[in-house]
């Protein structure tokens, strides 16, 4: 063999061995970061406005690097690297800072930076997005230096209680039901003596298994009290429209939303009023299913800082059903007229709420076979004295319901030349005497207190306290499901689908995306198998009835 050939052969062999060693050293999920990037990246984190409760606590930062070019990938939520940096001394003042260098993996798409050791103030003071997310981009490659400030703010609601109550009362709903509706809205206070939290196993498809590593979730199982405590209470929460929940960064991986960590900003002064309506039972939309104990249906209003209604948003079936201008619905003295559906096949229904009556929507039951077997519908009542009943706010009198406008109101009443004349002009607007439709009233409005502040003295709250009814404090603090059916359960032998009991308000944000935090903001409506929940008319300033 010629010398040059020997040299080439040895050099090739050396390269091959180097390649094998390199591959073996990087084989595994926890990569050897120091071998991947010899040039460390500088990190600098600052804490500001540290709450006094954290004095003496030792905080630390956890860095998790993910490689998720496709967030639907099976192993997307497995970090390629985890690094933790602990503070060398306990927190003492209002500010703190940590600077360090760290090698990072060659291939990563998302970095989560979590501030830990702050459990004492969870739900009371927010440090902002936690974890805070950074995405690997060209700008990072040009300037590989990561800095972030965690600034603590109180999670108290800075709108005075009196103003919240005035707004909530002003826009409380007029609820319309079929006269044979079995389960009308009641209240959760009657379950106060039976509040015993339990745990259940999360379904395998639940994203919290991937994002948080959780295998269980919370629920409470109530006795069957459908025939008692039938007083209707309305639960509400008023906050500034410009509010944020941790985990809602555009670049955050899905499933990291933290409904206990949020903060409010005054913004332009617009406010959102969220309402929750409690039902003891959900039976529908067919006899086949979806059957479960407990139901929380909701709607929200966007109002100006002067208290003028701007938009309304309604949800149901895990969707935003309608988001539209307040003038596109009927209201009486600012009280929106809302219709609650029953189901078909003799079912009492799943209690979804619509701003329009007298129509149906055929729903998807999961697949073509279930659609054929159960054929689920939402059947919304009409505003009809013969076939419908009302639950109304306490401040409305029977006199107020003498002539209720139903329709856009833009076209006046039709001119009638004779009783049976073909010349009668059709109008989409009716005026209904609804006095005989009154079934009962909303007996009480209940403000939903910020969970972390329940029963504590105030810090920033202008009312100076966070006092609540002791019978409600457990509900306000509880994050989990309310009812004895915490997860879906298909029982073929019974031909029944037992659905999930509802997530407790105000922690329902992950499902229908508005319950406390998303503002009504744009024209949206949901369509299903046949039909939709969108506007049935377009109104103007003359549509709301004064």
TrEMBL record:
Instruction: Give UniProt keywords alphabetically.
Output: Signal
Does the record's keyword annotation contain Transport?
Answer: no
Signal peptide, first to last residue? 1-28
The yes or no answer to whether the keyword Disulfide bond is present is no
Q: What is the protein's given name? A: Lipoprotein
Q: Where is this region: Disordered?
A: 407-429, 499-546
**Compositional bias (Basic and acidic residues):** 520-531
